C-alpha cells in the first residue's frame, strides 16, 4: 500500500505489532488520533450523573476507550519505510516525546486533545515562534 493513497480507515485497519516486537528502523511516523468512543462516552456521562444524583462511585476514565488515564485522548502511530506502512505501534499513548522522555531528547512533545482529537505540539524549552507563511511551515523554540 502507498500511504499517499490510503484513507484514514485503511490506516486504522493496519495490524499492530506485538508489544515486545522490535521492528527495526523506519523512515517516518504517521500519527493516528484515537477514534471517538461514543457508547463509552455516553456510558461514562450517565455514570457521572448517577454519581452526582445518587451518591454512586465516580466512574473511571478507563471506561472510555479513546481516553488515557490522564484524561487526554490516546494516539496510535504507524511506522513507514518510504511510502509503505509497516504496522501500528502503540494505541495507548497520550503523549509522543520526540527524542525521548525526561530531558533525554529535544524537548518537543505532541499530545492529542481529549474532545476534538486535534494534535498539540509544544516544547519543554518554553514558548514558540514561527517562520514566514510559506509552503514549508517552520516552528522554533524560544530560549
Structural features, described:
The chain is an alpha+beta fold. It folds into two domains: 3-105, no CATH class; 106-143, no CATH class. It has two helices and eight strands, in the order αβαβββββββ. The protein has helices at residues 8-12, 38-54, and strands spanning 28-33, 75-81, 84-88, 95-98, 108-112, 119-123, 128-130, 139-141. The strands form three sheets. The chain has a three-stranded antiparallel beta sheet with strand order 1-2-3. A hairpin with a 6-residue loop joins strand 5 (108-112) and strand 6. The longest helix is centred in the N-terminal third of the chain and has 17 residues, at 38-54. The radius of gyration is 18 Å and the shape is globular. The N and C termini lie far apart (42 Å). The mean pLDDT is 83.
Summed over residues and divided by their number, the pLDDT gives a mean of: 83
Into which percentage range does the β-strand content fall?
25-35%
β-strand number: 8
Strand order of the largest sheet: 1-2-3
Oligomeric state as shown: single chain
The computed structural class is: alpha+beta
The low-confidence parts are none
Helix content bin? 10-25%
Number of domains: 2
Biggest β-sheet, characterized?
3 strands, antiparallel
H/E series, N to C? Answer: HEHEEEEEEE
Number of helices: 2
| Through-space gap between termini | 42 Å
| Shape annotation | globular
- Rg calc: 18 Å
Amino acid at each position: 500500500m502507498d500511504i499517499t493513497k490510503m484513507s484514514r480507515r485503511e490506516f486504522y485497519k493496519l495490524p499492530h505489532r506485538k508489544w515486545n516486537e522490535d521492528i527495526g528502523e523506519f523512515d517516518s511516523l504517521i500519527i493516528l488520533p484515537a477514534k471517538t468512543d461514543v457508547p463509552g462516552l455516553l456510558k461514562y456521562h450517565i455514570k457521572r450523573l448517577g454519581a452526582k444524583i445518587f451518591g454512586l462511585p465516580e466512574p473511571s476514565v478507563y471506561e472510555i476507550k479513546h481516553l488515557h488515564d490522564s484524561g487526554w485522548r490516546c494516539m496510535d502511530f504507524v511506522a513507514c519505510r518510504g511510502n509503505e506502512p509497516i504496522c501500528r505501534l502503540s494505541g495507548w499513548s497520550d503523549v509522543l516525546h520526540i527524542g525521548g522522555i525526561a530531558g533525554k531528547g529535544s524537548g518537543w512533545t505532541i499530545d492529542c486533545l481529549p474532545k476534538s482529537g486535534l494534535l498539540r505540539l509544544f516544547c519543554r524549552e518554553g514558548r514558540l515562534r514561527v517562520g514566514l507563511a510559506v509552503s514549508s511551515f517552520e516552528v522554533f523554540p524560544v530560549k
